[in-house]
Amino acid sequence: MRVGKIIVAVLVIVVGLASGGYGAIMWLKQPGLGSQVSAGAWRADLDAGNQAADMFTRARVALNGLLALNRSETIYFVASQDDAGRQLSGACRYDVTGMPPAARWWSITLYGEDLFLVANESNRFSFNQSNVTREDNGAFHIIVAATQQSGDWLPAPPGKFILALRLYNPDPALAQRPGSLAAPHIARGPCATTDGKP
Nearest CA to 31 among 96, 94, 71, 76? Predict the structure, then answer.
């Protein structure tokens, strides 16, 4: 009888520790660090790389954005939705268009839902100010789709994905007010369907 109670007590403690640990890890892996600004479909966590951030924020950065720099050096914008607020999905084609942001160097990188680069036959993971094609007015146009496209194409996975816009050495005015970014547009085009609905 007493052994049974001890076993039950040990199981309760183990289950409690396991669920508490799992809950803590899931909280730490959530996107967003608390101090966010938005620019169009993009959002930036301003506490990434901030040495004055609290220990919980630093733990989240260690899991989700290791080696993040402070915003005077780099601003990290992330988009998980298009301009209309719909989840980015490899079932659809997207046109990412805009003018080069006010920064010494910038890039747009595609990551899978697991926050890792998406393997593809083209070994293409991002475009930046050095390799993106520009129109006469300086604007760029990147196509994001699961199937090969002509032009500047970023291969997308079949499921959900995110886009990361990194601005290295942003203009001081932009570093002070990241929400003033003239953010690239993310316009959804045609989507593949499995149920006959658009």
Answer: 76
